[in-house]
Design goal:
Length: 253
């Protein structure tokens, strides 16, 4: 789906070939690890949204809802297992970014560095929690799940603040543009503003779920029904699919 959308934007025989053989395009997406993860994530939250809605209705629909929720749980577990191999990719990305010497703004740079650090710490905590649930090691998995969720939530907060800072900078740059440079900068900045706004919306949707999965008593932790968790995750996933289709995805995870 992602590759098909990308190819359709290209002129000539490539777009025609993609339109003629959408199955090959879908297969190409699924053969990519990141593409497959996007698809699984979208299906996971979509099943949770549909299952949560159906579970509130008649007994027959409730049974179908239960089955969809079971599928969602299995897809979520699948993504957890696949993330066992994401540490090196995240480490490579963090090393490549380093201390963000290419960033013009110091605040954006350090927000990105801290976000990368939170992402890096998230993975081993989740791995320990998974291993504990699988009886590979003997420890309390609950505290490790909480810690991994906290790192994920911290990363999302830092990403939101970073995007807001970038939007503030873009607005300031736009005010300083005049004449012909204004028209050219306007187009470039509009595209970047759209990307950052979508990133904020995606991160806020994920953050709402991250808080929900924290221990009860913290903000709205534990208060979301399954359909609302599915809705927030579906919104975030669809934004991610769109950003990938237009080449706006960022980061390795």
């Amino acid at each position: 789906v992602i590759t098909l959308l990308t190819y359709c934007k290209q002129p000539g025989s490539v777009a025609m070939a993609a339109a003629a053989d959408p199955l090959s395009s879908l297969v190409s997406v699924l053969e990519s690890y990141r593409g497959r993860d996007r698809v699984i994530r979208t299906l996971c939250y979509g099943c949770q949204l549909a299952g949560g809605v159906l579970a509130r209705k008649s007994p027959a629909e409730s049974e179908m809802g239960r089955r969809l929720l079971a599928v969602s749980a299995q897809l979520s577990h699948c993504r957890t297992v696949l993330r066992l191999f994401d540490d090196l990719a995240m480490l490579a990305y963090s090393r490549q970014y380093g201390l963000g010497a290419k960033e013009e703004d110091a605040i954006v740079r350090w927000l990105s560095v801290l976000s990368n650090l939170a992402d890096q710490l998230y993975y081993p905590c989740e791995h320990v929690a998974w291993a504990a649930d699988a009886d590979v090691i003997h420890t309390n998995s609950h505290k490790w799940w909480t810690l991994s969720t906290a790192f994920w939530g911290l990363s999302l907060v830092l990403s939101i603040v970073r995007s807001l800072r970038i939007l503030f900078q873009l607005r300031r740059k736009l005010r300083n543009c005049t004449g012909q440079s204004l028209e050219q900068s306007q187009k470039e900045m509009d595209a970047q503003v759209k990307s950052e706004v979508l990133s904020i919306l995606s991160s806020m949707a994920d953050l709402s779920n991250a808080v929900h999965w924290l221990p009860p008593g913290f903000l709205w932790a534990g208060q979301f029904p399954p359909w609302l968790v599915g809705l927030m995750g579906t919104i975030s996933s669809l934004i991610g699919v769109y950003q990938t289709s237009v080449g706006a995805g960022s980061g390795p995870v």
